[in-house]
Amino acid sequence: MAGLLASGFAFAAPPEVRTPRLRVPFRALGEPVAATDVTVKLNGAPAKVARLLKPGDDLLLLIAVDFSGDLTLVDQARETLLKQIEALPPSVRVGLLRAGDDLRVVEEPGASRESIAAALQALTVTARPGLLNSLEATQQLADSIAAKAQVRVATLWISDSNVARYREDYTNPVVNSSDAGDMSRRFPEGLIQERIRQLSASLSRGETPVSLVHLQYLGDRLNTAYQTGLSDLVRASGGGGEFCRSVAEIPAAIEKAFGEISAQYTAEVEFRPSKIKRLDVAVEAGEREVRFRPRRRVPEPGSKKGSEE
Amino acid sequence: MQKAIEEFRVQSRRLGMVEGVAAQVTSTSRKSRWHGRLFENFRNDFLDAVPHEVAQRGGKKNILRRNQFGVNLSGPVWIPKLFDGGRTTFFSLTYEGMREKTGRSSLNTIPTMAERTGDWSQVVDPAGEPLPIFDPASTATNPGYNSTQPLTTSNLQYQRNPFPGNVIPVSRLNPQAVAAAQLYPEPNSTAGPFFRNNYFVFSPEVNSANGFIGRLDHTVDEHHRLGGSFSHSKGLDGAAPVFLNAANPGPVVRDRQSERAGIEHTFTISPQRLNSLSIDVSSDRITNLPETVNGRVYPNYKMGAYLPMGRANAELRSARQVFSIAEGYSMRWRQHRLRMAARWFRDQVNIYSPTYPEGSYRFGSGLTSLPGINNTGHAFASFLLGQAEFAEQSVVQSPSYFRRSRYSLAMSDQWEVLKGLVFSFSLGLEMSGARQEKYDRQSTVALDVINPENGRPGALVAAGVGGQGRTFQPFLCKGEPSLGIAWNPLGGTRTVVRASYGRSYSAIPVYSSQWGTQAFNGSPAWVSPNPQLEPAAILTATVPPGGRTFPDLRPESANNTIADLVESTGKQPTYQSFGLSLERELPSSLLLTVGLGHAHGRNLLLGNSASNPNAIPLSALEYRDQLNDEAFNQAQRPYPQYQRFNIFSSWPEGRYQRDAGYLRLEKRSSSGLVLSTTYEVSKQMDNYSGPYGIQDYYNRSNEWALTSSNNPQRLTLTYSYEIPMGPNRLLFPVTDWRRYIVEGWSVSGVTTIVSGLPLALRPQFNNTGRVVDTLYVDVVPGVDPHAAEQTPERWFNPDAFAQPADFTVGDAARTHPSLRGPGAQNHDLSLNKRISLSIEKSVEFSMVGLNFINHANWADPDTTIGTASAPNVNAGRIISSRGGRVIQLGLRYSF
Predict the structure, then answer these.
(1) What is the CATH number of the domain that holds A138?
(2) Which residues of B touch A249 (CB under 8 A)?
(3) Is A204 on the interface with B (CB under 8 A)?
(4) Which of A209, B119, B559, B659 has its CA 20 to 30 A from that of B142?
(5) Does the beta-carbon distance from A187 to B830 stay under 8 Å?
(6) Tens of each residue's pLDDT in chain A, 309 residues
(7) What would the 3-class secondary structure string for B372-424 be?
């Protein structure tokens, strides 16, 4: 697992080039970016951009759905997804995954929009949300694909998850109702915050940006902590999160997520491993607003993780 | 791209994401999918501040040793060689235990040592003036009494001599009372004023609890999923004794046990249709474990403002079970989401609760007063003479087994009318059966049945007897509509307007009480013919003779008692609410919500302090001192055969209205800050609430006043912040060993600031011949009730109010329209430090502080208004504050 998580540092350079490379996906909204406009800094020092995969190049988009609640929201999301997938250019291959009891492949990535549409139409809601339990696996899958192939890879989560419906007890329910002096539930968000921090540590080893469209903004304290945590997670990955407060907002939110994914680039920069295990990453693309994963972990020098391919 | 797709296939199979392909898992990796936590929360008094209310009395901190600990484990079910739940069967188990040793403190008033011997020579009234104690044995009719003139010290109806030197001779003291008085501890406080607040209690209490929750989830196939849960908890509520003997009036040691179980089946029929079925059972049992002498609990003696002896409900066994079956079906049809739901509830309450098995005696000041003259006599003096103004005994021969069924049907539709406009509508049918008793052992007073003893309406009827059905209330069926709109104006996504309307009903609960079984379990009562002239009972070693035998199904069997009255018209509490809000996304991840709300309710269930269907009309006050004659007084009641009715929080007469506006601002930032603040302005009025009760039961519009618990302004702030310290962070970006110290800190907090509650003023004396239970004060015209400069010494101007004249009601409102108590604020904080041991393992240290800045909130001022001749010196003054910092340390290991 650790090897896959760290595979973002795979050395994808041609054999004749000895300098290892680091893939740095980023999203730049607005006008297309030329390679000469892109500046990548690692720990404050500019790194040489050896290759830049741009919009128009191959993109493998993994759409993961996590439907466990309101049919109205699900149907609206489904309809919008169908429209957006239909509008994607042929260079984009779409795979469909489903969370729930576990992460499952619903449709392998392919060129056929019809088969994806059929799979989406046949999707049912599950009894329990599975987003938190599936984020790591999706990240592993996406990162390993990016490490093997010269394509851009992105993941998009569509979820209506409510923290109270998970199998795990993130709600910290009262066990002993007779215990009048219980202070441990005064701040009930502790458990979900702990899980988010755990996920954050795990996902920080990855590479692929994660986008999330949450279909139902919930304002209670636990869900606020949950959704804020999700928002932080996807922003830290270089992706973005949208939280819909009404059914009417779902189409725009999904459309926005597709727009950001379409504007995803991957820069391959030359990188010299050192003893420093963490990397500060900065990406600039002229005047454009850029989203990227600002912190990366560095694999052990000379380890298998850093010498794949 | 092909290479990418190939890798997708390889990795998705390797990770077990493909149907029918097992993940490459081993027993180790199976176990690694088990997650959980171990935790310990620790409290000790050395961490806490001395509560302000204790510090003001010179007290010390109560002892506190508290440990709360537990474990949680969840993941796929895997039993080696027996069962591998793999990706279909999951469990979650949580155990939590608690051990606590603590102390409780309170300040009370008990008789002085001199009073216990009958020496009242040093006793003073609230104004500091000598309090005369009169000898009831010297009572004589005053031949010069002029009934056309007000009763005053110069125009007495009855003459009575004070005890010489204000000392009751030893020979006159009741032996039972003297023996009981010896069970009072000695006074140990001089908090005062005037010998009041003379007993500071500080006693230990031991509590414990153990409980667990287990859950199981199983996916049968693509369409069927099953879930089950079970929980059990057993706790022992220790009770800090107020006295260290059987006369202890404090709470009883209580054993609590509860269980919950449920199963749920979810059937996904198709992407557009979903069915769910759930069955739930809950059980809560309470058993009191009282101190006894020779197997008997101590009688209950009530003596005005002094601490009572003995207690109510010392013996109690209660079990409450709720069964429910719920079926729900959801489907999507065009732009509609339809949902149908049906639910059945069965409530069961088994209860054995003799309130006063050894009798309860109430002593008033009347028998040692100068009849008709305020501020004379004392309840404890009457106790020393053994002369009770009221006595009762609870005779409970068997437990009660109450049953009730409820049903609900609901249909809802959510319809996207236009792009950006969603309309939701639901209509529910709430059906509620009436309470039954398994063996028909319940009864009530029927107000339309003629009482054979006096020929007046109102007689006892028993369930299943004489044509009476098994219940006393009709089967109720009410429609509950609701409407809602969510609108994104102009198709935008930054603004949402919401509007809602709802109407609902609630059923009368099945209380854990043996109320309504008077024909089978009664409370024979002894009532004084005139509480100023004759005792109801003389205190003896046993309950006075004359009790009834049960069952007693005679229509007149509840006569001369406080009779249980069950509401039988079918009126149900009804609630309606309207809401309108606007949510607007602002730059910088801000979300602003502005809202208005209106809610009102009627037929709200009231208790005995707020409703009295057998109250004497206020017009009877014209009879003045005649009202002290019990027979005359009783004759004024609409149902004179009854003392009053016990309606047990079930009389549907309350009404309220609440209007509120609020503004909420939420901020979520990627820098780890979450902030939410809500400011609310509200006004709530009702015709029942208050700390003391109401004055006029027959004219509810006169009682319409500010709700006593309404804070007109409330500001709440919740926040959570990941402190940016450590590598790659803003502060202390160290990367060596020091990062283990500086990284992983977070802070969460809740701050609440509220304005004060409406003040309820009451007069020192209530000389209304027991016509008015709760007397309001008079307003003094032309005097501003607000203090010119508000300070704790003078929070309001007591001169603006006056004690009403005898046999008149006060003209002030139940709660004052503009006088409010001091506001309050509270600040709770949680500081956490997380140490990551590996990707999945971590240790978190937490410190939770309630009122962490140790802020003292002022208590409400003294609102008791005395007479002009004996004013309450503390009226309008705040004499105490409350609150204190409480800290809990916690350690959690997550894996």
Answers:
(1) 3.40.50.410
(2) 488, 493, 496
(3) no
(4) B119
(5) yes
(6) 444 444 444 444 455 545 678 889 999 988 888 888 889 988 888 888 888 898 888 999 999 999 987 777 888 899 999 999 999 999 899 999 999 777 889 999 988 899 999 999 988 888 789 899 899 999 989 999 988 888 999 999 999 999 999 988 898 899 999 898 899 999 988 889 889 988 888 888 888 999 999 999 888 889 988 998 999 889 888 898 999 988 888 999 999 999 999 999 999 888 876 666 677 888 988 888 888 988 887 655 443 333 333
(7) CCCCCCCHHHHHHCCEECEEECCECCCCEEEEEEEEEEEEEEEEEEECCEEEE
Whether residue A128 sits in one domain with residue A16: no
Q: What is the ipTM of this complex?
A: 0.87
Q: What is the CATH number of the domain that holds A288?
A: 2.60.40
Contacts of B472 (CB under 8 A, 6+ apart): B434, B442, B444, B446, B461, B463, B516, B566, B568
Shared domain for A89 and A229, answered yes or no, is: yes
Residues of B with CB below 8 A from A165's CB? none
**Do residues A138 and A247 share a domain?**
yes
Q: Scan for tokens 């939280």, then name that residue.
A: A243
Whole domain around residue A247: which residue ranges?
Answer: 59-172+185-262
Give a yes or no: residue A80 inside a domain.
yes
Nearest CB among A105, A225, A294 relative to B17 is that of A105
Q: Which two tokens stand for residue B140?
A: 């004589």
Strand ranges inside A170-263, DSSP E: 210-214, 240-243
Cβ-based contacts of A280 with chain B (< 8 Å): 728
Q: Which residues of A touch B417 (CB under 8 A)?
A: none
CB contact under 8 A, A194 and B844: yes
DSSP states of B119-136: B-TT-B-TTS-B---B-G
> Does residue A230 share a domain with residue A162?
yes
Taking an 8 Å cut-off on Cβ atoms, the answer to whether B486 and A246 are in contact is yes
